[in-house]
Design goal:
Rossmann fold; 4 domains; 7-stranded mixed beta sheet
Amino acid sequence: MHLEFPGTDFEADRAEFLELARSAGAEAVAVIGGSRDRPDAGLYAGSGKVDEVGAAVKAGGAELAIFNHDLSPSQERNLEKRLQCRVLDRAGLILDIFARRARSHEGKLQVELAQMQHLATRLVRGWTHLERQKGGIGLRGPGESQLETDRRLVRGRIATLKRRLEEVRARRAQNRQGRARNEIPTVSLVGYTNAGKSTLFNALTGDATFASNLLFATLDTTVRKVALPTGETAVLADTVGFIRDLPHDLIAAFRATLEESREADLLLHVVDAADAERVARMEQVDAVLREIGADEVPRLLVYNKIDLRKEGISPETARIEHDEQGLPVRVFISSRTGEGLDLLRSAIAARLYPDLVEDELLLPPSAARLRAQLFALNAVQSEHVEDDGGLRLRVRLPYSRLERMCREAGVQPPPRAVAAMARAS
């Protein structure tokens, strides 16, 4: 069941709903649509439309009725009584998909927490058929006892899950601090679900993360190093995809994972260039980024899937578009074919290291430690030994880092270059 309300795109939302159901493993025997100005307080849909759903449930032998909307606990209960089958709303459907896809211990903890928080709002009415409390001695029935037991179990489990996820969060924060000490920047992939983030992640890192043409194919954050054309190294994080009306319980439960995006040095916002609804999808991703406090993180738009381009929808060739300062702001690629990946690596380097320079550095014989550090960073392009035993190195490095390393070694850094090499690339 999918209803159209004023200001919504019925066809696009309906297509996404069917894809969500497919990703959950459901086989649709009927799809019921309709339109309303506002939801019905008791049944969400009108009584006649609910009867239409009930007839379709009976005719198709359906075991489940899914509503592509967020239902209140009372609406869910009323619908189940009316339809005589289990009813699932949009939040419950997404939670089910997450439960199917979670593989890591952390992912399972996050999904279970979201499920428990979702269940807690529905538990009060889940036992109404057993309640006996009316006040007075002898009138306290088993229903209240069972309900209170369940409430206590759910509260206890939520507290346990939150405590374990706080430990995960602390460990992630410690890992980020370690990368910061080693001056390794973090790049986080964000975007609407099924935009091709995991395929791009695999293409850039050579990893084999699970990638599939399904919504929410990736739930567990994966972090890998990626080499940049400047000789620098960055850490790339593949995160869970976003979607319209992402349940707040999920956002709260996945806080530890989403912090990878909030604490990143650069966000790669991956967009499906062949999606006719890509502008709306981008706005929905922006809304989630604002909600998790990541809207101020520098962002590079990556238009993916240009190999699936259609006339008037996606660009014809891989390219980089720059802003007025010469910094890359948009890159058009195909992660599946590899077209434009070198451009993307260069664009990432330019955004992470806008002060990248290539210049000559004169080192005295006593600066052997600095020489070793530069070689360890793969910053040395060439080396020449002078007559006095000194070294003339041609180095390629962000100027701020080069200047600091020279200062610590007591060596005069070269004059700051006017043009940044990565930006020119």
